[in-house]
Design a protein that fits this description.
- It comes from viral metagenome.
- This is HNH nuclease domain-containing protein.
- Keywords: Hydrolase.
- One of its GO terms (molecular function) is endonuclease activity.
- The structure is a single chain.
- By secondary structure, the chain is mainly α.
- It folds into 2 domains: about 1-55, no CATH class; about 70-160, no CATH class.
- It has helices spanning about 45-55, 55-65, 80-85, 90-100, 145-160; strands at about 25, 35, 120, 140.
- The strands form 2 sheets. A two-stranded antiparallel ribbon has the order 1-2. It has a two-stranded antiparallel ribbon with strand order 3-4.
- The longest helix is centred in the last third of the chain and has 17 residues, at about 145-160.
- The protein is elongated and about 70 Å long.
Length: about 160
């Protein structure tokens, strides 16, 4: 797989996975032997690594569990910010959303994942080889910082 891309396509059917010399199916992630009763993955670690690269919801859950919704750049707590915004109404709410560079259309919720006011950002951009990465190349950024970082990346790309 090319690290300058995102995972595309579907996983191949379990019956089509290669077999090792002993007749065991090769693990989807590490190519090690998959011993029964397992079918396509040899360990929970391999399931985790492949899931990070193929399941965006799983990836976001892992990033949130690690970072707790705290922006890696400005240290804002996105969950507390979401709670604050949800208590506001009218112009006061609109001004607060503008302050954090949050679109009026963005859904904000109370319970899970810091109210949705953060993004999982690739530290090394996908276009620069940071695709198909594990958690080590991901960080939590609030919406405002993510927009700024994206703008910086686009400016650099135009100069190249």
């Amino acid at each position: 797989m090319n690290n300058s891309n995102r995972y595309m396509g579907k996983l191949i059917d379990a019956k089509l996975l290669p077999k090792d010399d002993d007749g065991y199916t090769c693990c989807r992630w590490c190519n090690g032997p998959v011993k029964p009763p397992k079918r396509t993955m040899c360990s929970p670690e391999c399931v985790h690594e492949l899931s990070l690269r193929t399941n965006g919801n799983y990836l976001r859950n892992c990033v949130y569990k690690r970072d707790k919704g705290i922006c890696a750049i400005c240290n804002i707590d996105t969950k507390q910010t979401a709670k604050k915004i949800l208590l506001l109404e009218g112009e006061e709410k609109e001004e607060c959303l503008k302050e954090y560079s949050i679109s009026l259309k963005r859904k904000i919720w109370m319970k899970k994942h810091g109210g949705g006011l953060w993004d999982a950002d690739h530290i090394i951009a996908v276009k620069d080889g940071g695709g198909l990465c594990g958690l080590d190349n991901l960080r939590t950024l609030c919406i405002k910082c993510h927009k700024n970082e994206t703008k910086i990346l686009l400016t650099k790309s135009k100069k190249e």
